[in-house]
Design goal:
Elements lengths: L8 H7 L2 H6 L2 E8 L2 H10 L6 E8 L18 E9 L9 H14 L7 E3 L3 E4 L2 E13 L4 E9 L18 H4 L7 H22 L2 H9 L7 E6 L2 E10 L5 E5 L2 E5 L3 E4 L1
Parallel strand pairs: 1-2
Antiparallel strand pairs: 2-3, 3-7, 4-5, 5-6, 6-7, 8-9, 8-12, 9-10, 10-11
This protein binds biotin.
Biotin binds next to helix 3, strand 3, strand 6 and strand 7.
């Protein structure tokens, strides 16, 4: 394996913005971990924080949304987690997890992948295949404070053989374009900078600042969609998201506003 393929603390720190360097309490880079999100959870529970960043070359028990496994082979992809704390109640950051999707998408687009789309709430797709996923976990939630861990997985360079265990259609940056993908160290620094920027500005801007960008990139806009929400299957035409990040479904019963669930094309 080329040295440049491995995570390198000096390289990453050299590329992070002064704002990020100032904010990050601890940068943890590991060869192997069960899950970068789980590790940050333990660190926060042990009193570390508030801004922890963790990435690993390999996860043995990477976690996806809805209790799914996130396939995390060695040194092929990005596995990143970052924690943040707000002195705000939860409802003040409505839609943050969707805005995170826009920021990750824009970061990837900035490396020359213009065709990427979003799937509610925050999957990143290329031509219907999943390229990146985001897992937002709320660790501490009180009336006036909130601790979150944001986990980002981006498939950068994974062989068909390595990805064969993934039970859905997937892709990686190397398959989208013939040119070599960006280095993982550089992509990681960009994602951390952009996420920290988002966390800082979100309380003031709110989701309304991100809504148009989200809707412009919605892979389901105007299409028939089937949504499984709290065990119920709902059908209709997808109309994008509202100012709180809820999915708008134009159904036979009128407009439905869906706050959580899994969406799939009919
Ligand atoms: C999904 O789309 O289901 C979310 C996938 C999130 C995967 C990332 S990889 C880094 C972080 N650590 C984890 O265990 N999961 C997230």
């Amino acid at each position: 394996m080329k040295q440049s393929d491995l995570l390198d603390s000096k390289l990453i720190q050299g590329m992070l913005s002064p704002v990020s360097l100032d904010r990050i309490s601890k940068l943890i880079l590991l060869e192997e971990v069960d899950s970068t999100n789980s590790l940050l959870q333990k660190e926060l529970n042990a009193g570390m924080g508030p801004v922890l960043v963790c990435s690993a070359d390999h996860q043995t028990a990477g976690r996806g949304r809805s209790g799914k496994f996130w396939h995390s082979p060695l040194s092929k992809n990005i596995y990143l987690s970052i924690s943040w704390e707000y002195a705000l109640p939860y409802h003040k950051v409505d839609g943050l997890s969707l805005a995170i999707g826009v920021v990750v998408l824009d970061s990837l687009i900035s490396y020359g992948y213009p065709e990427l789309k979003l799937k509610w709430p925050n999957d990143i797709l290329f031509d219907g295949a999943k390229l990146a996923g985001i897992l937002v976990e709320i660790i501490g939630r009180a009336d006036s404070s909130l601790k979150i861990i944001v986990g980002v997985g981006v498939n950068v360079n994974m062989s068909a053989k390595q990805g064969s265990v993934i039970g859905r259609s997937w892709t990686d940056l190397s398959s989208i374009k013939p040119k070599p993908p960006p280095s993982r160290n550089e992509l990681l620094a960009t994602l951390v900078d952009q996420l920290i920027d988002l966390f800082l500005s979100y309380p003031e801007k709110g989701f309304s600042h991100w809504r148009n960008s989200w809707n412009a990139r919605d892979s389901f806009m105007g299409k028939n969609a089937q949504i499984i929400s709290n065990g119920e299957t709902l059908s209709g035409i997808s109309r994008g998201v509202d100012s709180k990040g809820r999915l708008i479904l134009d159904s036979s019963e009128g407009l439905l506003f869906i706050a959580a669930g899994d969406v799939s094309l009919r």
